[in-house]
């Protein structure tokens, strides 16, 4: 999970892909050729920079209907994270709140992969 403190555009999305995608493959001992990458059709995902990055890195993309959050399993994960996050209290300062929020959501994100959750 990455904490992006600015608006995301195609270039920033591409830099996140460059770092996180490759690190994720390495962590799990996978090759890009073993994977099919799924993303929605948000404009940043379809921008020139990420499209070129996917081609350059030979990443296979899953064809995705224009608007289909019901088919996207990540939407259920985000809904679960949002619900769990809303049950916690924010710390007193904005800076602490930002960091605490990121820490809580990161933990919840990784907890989703644990079968007993």
UniProtKB/TrEMBL annotation:
Domain of life, source organism: Eukaryota
GO MF term set: nucleic acid binding
Phylogenetic placement of the source organism: Eukaryota, Fungi, Fungi incertae sedis, Mucoromycota, Mucoromycotina
Pfam families hit by this protein: DDE_3 (PF13358)
Name of this chain's protein: Tc1-like transposase DDE domain-containing protein
Ranges of residues in domain Tc1-like transposase DDE: 28-90
